[in-house]
Write a sequence for this structure.
């Protein structure tokens, strides 16, 4: 770790789900345990823990910040600040000597219309919470942190940007698959937010299942998966799992799939799903986005570009136990280097770089 002044940081995760957990909560908790002066505020914390500010509500219902009570910290981190109040709070904080970081893990400029989240970020449909406020927040921020180079190109054109890849907790590496009959090809997700991704497999998954007798399994509701993959049977679905139970559910897959439709939105997505699978000992096959080319170049997982490749790789992994175990072991070795615990210093270094740096917005 480069030498930087240890910063006092207050983070505002956007949620307590996967995005908030991987990008901020897990990192902050580890750094706090290491003795660093880090704190975070979640939505259900008491009001006195929330951002203290003087507000103004416009005629269109948009809430803007006129002034803030600056917390006694060096750096404030806003995750995914799609709301106007956060974008307008940034200059108020900077005027009082607090540096501001905007943290982003998705490309909201290129959400596809079939994605259930699309309407929620359109300026004309959601005046108070949309991608324009996020863009403005990035322009004002002292630093933008993102999970992929593609996101840096979208939100860090001013040059004040750091790429901090997604990592997984080291505890995932200790999870083991429970004994079970049969073989399971697994996917984690929802058609609502991945409307065109499973279709990248064509009929490859169904043909592999038919040839090996394996079953399709989903962490999620499984709604729409049969149609998207052209399956002859409804897949098994365990429903949604809490963050505590999620990795154990994924570990029950014998082979995982991470198909992604080629689009700007997906090209900006991180390697997280594949890394989750690798860390719990599940060999995975993914579409060849930039992030999955990078992960497979390290030795974790495999890539498939066509239905025929999806079919062939699945068949080999399902039929050849030795090969499946070899790919799983190699993936776990890679995942052991990509843990939160081994890489949280990168966040601390990025935040600390602001402490003695000249202010970007005087």
């Amino acid at each position: 770790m480069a030498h930087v002044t240890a910063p006092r940081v207050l983070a505002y995760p956007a949620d307590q789900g996967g995005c908030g957990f991987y990008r901020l909560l897990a990192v902050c908790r580890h750094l706090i345990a290491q003795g660093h002066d880090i704190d975070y505020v979640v939505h259900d914390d008491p009001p006195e823990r929330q951002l203290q500010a003087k507000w103004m509500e416009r005629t269109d219902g948009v809430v803007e910040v006129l002034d803030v009570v600056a917390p006694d910290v060096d750096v404030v981190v806003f995750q995914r600040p799609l709301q106007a109040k956060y974008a307008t709070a940034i200059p108020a904080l900077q005027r009082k000597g607090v540096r501001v970081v905007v943290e982003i893990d998705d490309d909201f400029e290129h959400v596809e219309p079939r994605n259930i989240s699309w309407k929620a970020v359109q300026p004309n449909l959601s005046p108070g919470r949309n991608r324009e406020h996020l863009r403005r927040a990035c322009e004002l921020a002292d630093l933008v942190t993102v999970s992929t180079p593609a996101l840096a190109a979208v939100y860090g054109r001013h040059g004040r940007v750091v790429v901090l890849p997604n990592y997984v907790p080291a505890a995932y590496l200790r999870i083991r698959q429970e004994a079970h009959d049969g073989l399971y090809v697994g996917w984690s997700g929802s058609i609502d937010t991945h409307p065109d991704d499973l279709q990248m497999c064509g009929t490859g998954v169904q043909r592999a299942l038919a040839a090996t007798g394996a079953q399709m399994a989903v962490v999620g509701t499984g709604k729409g998966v049969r149609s998207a993959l052209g399956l002859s049977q409804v897949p098994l679905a365990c429903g949604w799992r809490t963050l505590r139970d999620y990795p154990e559910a994924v570990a029950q897959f014998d082979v995982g799939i991470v198909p992604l439709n080629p689009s700007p939105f997906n090209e900006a997505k991180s390697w997280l799903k594949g890394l989750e699978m690798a860390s719990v000992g599940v060999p995975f096959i993914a579409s060849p986005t930039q992030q999955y080319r990078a992960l497979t170049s390290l030795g974790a997982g495999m890539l498939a570009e066509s239905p025929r490749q999806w079919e062939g790789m699945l068949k080999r992994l399902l039929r050849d136990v030795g090969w499946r175990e070899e790919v799983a072991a190699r993936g776990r070795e890679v995942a052991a280097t990509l843990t939160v615990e081994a890489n949280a210093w990168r966040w601390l270094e990025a935040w600390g770089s602001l402490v003695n740096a000249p202010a970007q917005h005087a």
Residues 121 and 130 are 4 Å apart (CA to CA).
